[in-house]
Design goal:
single chain; two-stranded antiparallel ribbon; alpha+beta
């Protein structure tokens, strides 16, 4: 034991290498702080990444809410809040868009079609009847285009106009070229024109209204006591020409004279009064009875969309079975 060297006494204080180590750690920390300050963080990507990781590891988010969560069943107490997506059957599938959402909004898919807008916001609800009305009105416009092609010459001359309102096709015959002023005698040139109109009406269902109109200038002759007589006689003359060859069923027709009470424009100039003197052939195409309730529902749910179809102006006609007429 005497031969062994004794261990020297350790100096007091911390070892000398600790200061070097502390300086190195401080420099590393400053380096990473600078890197972090220079970087940019995309909060949206971070949120998506966090959500994906939470779903991958089956992390359930616990929400503290004051209201009772609203679910689709009183038995199933767990659900993921979100906006439902439309499905062909009456089942509701949810997709979580906001993790902090505490209520669930949904609509019955039997009656509504929910259209999703950007950022998951609901743009509006539309009934399935909307697509059917679009198809019917498109069909009416196509029929009007066919008539326009056949009557192109008269349209270019300004002697005739064709337009659509809802399910109505309006063939507007101006006084210029068709009737002499103050008379109800149809120009022979219009016999061939009305023959083309007759062919179009014969191929399509619905009622037909022939309406006569005048301006506000008072007329009183030995034949016509007032504008009412003149407008009614002109409408009758056009209707009689449509009945030639017995192609059309007269029971589909209504002949009316409106005199000056329904002008297209104000009767404040010679040009406007000339435009108001006209005979209109209105082909009122029908809408099936099965669609009637859905059309009424559309008017209650979305009045603005309902008005865009101009169904009020169309005076909707329905194919009523005899048992429904009373």
């Amino acid at each position: 034991m005497d031969d062994e060297a004794e261990c020297p006494e350790c100096p007091a204080g911390i070892p000398a290498w600790v200061m070097t180590f502390a300086d190195l750690m401080s420099l590393l920390m400053c380096f990473f702080v600078l890197l972090l300050s220079f970087s940019e963080m995309d909060a949206l990507k971070f949120k998506r990444l966090a959500g994906s990781m939470a779903q991958a590891f089956c992390v359930q988010n616990q929400l503290n809410v004051t209201d009772i969560p609203k679910g689709t069943s009183i038995i199933a107490q767990e659900f993921s809040p979100g906006i439902p997506e439309p499905t062909p059957i009456n089942e509701i599938y949810q997709s979580t868009r906001e993790l902090t959402e505490s209520t669930l909004d949904f609509q019955d898919t039997d009656r509504f079609d929910v259209e999703q807008g950007t950022e998951g916001q609901t743009r509006g609800v539309r009934l399935p009847i909307v697509q059917q009305l679009d198809d019917l009105i498109t069909e009416t416009q196509s029929d009007a285009d066919d008539m326009s092609e056949q009557l192109q010459i008269q349209i270019v001359r300004g002697e005739m106009e064709i337009e659509t309102k809802g399910r109505n096709i309006i063939v507007r015959i101006a006084e210029k070229g068709s009737f002499a002023p103050g008379t109800a005698d149809l120009s022979p040139e219009y016999y061939a024109i009305l023959s083309k109109v007759r062919e179009v009406i014969a191929k399509r269902e619905g009622t037909v209204s022939v309406e006569g109109h005048t301006d506000n200038a008072v007329i009183r002759t030995s034949r016509f006591r007032s504008n009412w007589d003149l407008s009614a006689m002109r409408a009758s003359t056009v209707a009689q020409e449509l009945f030639v060859e017995n192609v059309l069923d007269p029971r589909r027709f209504a002949v009316t004279g409106f005199a000056h009470v329904r002008p297209l424009v104000a009767n404040n100039s010679p040009e406007n009064r000339e435009r108001n003197r006209r005979v209109e052939i209105i082909i009122r195409q029908t809408i099936d009875l099965d669609l009637q309730e859905q059309v009424e529902a559309l008017r209650n749910i979305d009045p603005e969309l309902y008005r865009s179809f101009q169904l009020e102006e169309s005076r909707l006609l329905y194919n009523l079975p005899p048992a429904s007429i009373f």
